[in-house]
Amino acid sequence: MALPVRTCALVGRFTDSRVAESAHALLAHLATRQVAVLVSEAAAVGDTLADPAAATLRVPEAELGRRADLMIAVGGDGTLLYAAGLVARHGVPLLGINRGRLGFLTDVMPQDMLGCVDAALEGRLEADERPLLAACLRQSGGAVAEALALNDVVLQKLATGRMLDFETRVDGRYVNTHAGDGIVVASATGSTAYALSCGGPIIEPHLDALVLAPICPHTLSDRPIVVSASAVVQFELLQRPDTRAQVTCDGAILGEMAPGDRLEVKPAGERITLLHPSGHDYFRLLRSKLHWGRGNAER
Fold first, then answer.
1. Whole-prediction pTM
2. Which residues are part of the catalytic machinery?
3. 183 forms bridges with which residues in the sheet?
C-alpha cells in the first residue's frame, strides 16, 4: 500500500441507512485527515454523501481501483467481494466495515471503524494476502469469457427443475460424471460461503487448497473433495434435453453454458490484500459467526 494514503475509494450500498450512517462518519473523518474520497459515478447515493467538508469525487467505476491507495467496503461480505473485483488487478488493499450479517470478510465493526481507518492510513493494520481463482468459459461458438473470483466459481442449473449432467477433470485427469444442480469451486477463503452450505469443509484461509462441492447431487456418494490450490479444474456440460447452465464468479454472472461448452478454473496470478485489526484471530472469528464454544470461557 502506498503511504501516506492520499486517496481512498468508498464502496457500499449507500441507499441502506446503516451503510449511509457509516459512510457519512467516514467522510467526515477522512476530511479531517485530508484524504480525498472516490465513489463510483454509478452508485445510487442521492444526497447521502453530500458533505461539502469532504473532498468527494465521483468517477467511473473502472477507475476506482486504479486511482485509490486504499479501498473501504461498507456492508456485508457481498459488498467486499464486489470491491475485491474492482481492485484485483491493481494491488490496492481492502478494508471491510461490517454493516451486513455474517461478515467473515468484513470483520471491522462500526464502533471500531474510525480507529481502524486511522491505523490503515498509517500502515498499522495486518496485511492478509488471499489468492484468487481465474475462471475461463469457452463456448462452442468460439466465445470466451474470463473473470476472477475471491470466494468461488459456481456452475449451476439455469432452468428450475432441470438437472445437469457434467464431467469433472482435475489437471486433465477424469474425476467424475455428476448429475445434480451444479458444483461450487471454492478457494480456502470461500470455503465458509456457498461451499459450506453444500456440505464442504471449512479450510483455514492460508492453506493451498480448493474445495469442489456438488450442489444437490443426484447420487449421495457424490461428496465434496479437496484438491491442491495449484490444480486446473475443468468441467464439460453433457447433452441432456433443454440443458442450460450458468457460471458465476463471486455471485456475478460470467455467462451461460450449453452442452459441449467448457469451464476451466485455475489459480490466478493476482492476489487480494485484506486488512485486519491488530490481533486478528481467524478461529475467534469462526466462533463468533458460527456460535461455537457457547457455555465455555473465551480463551
1. 0.91
2. 77
3. 155, 214
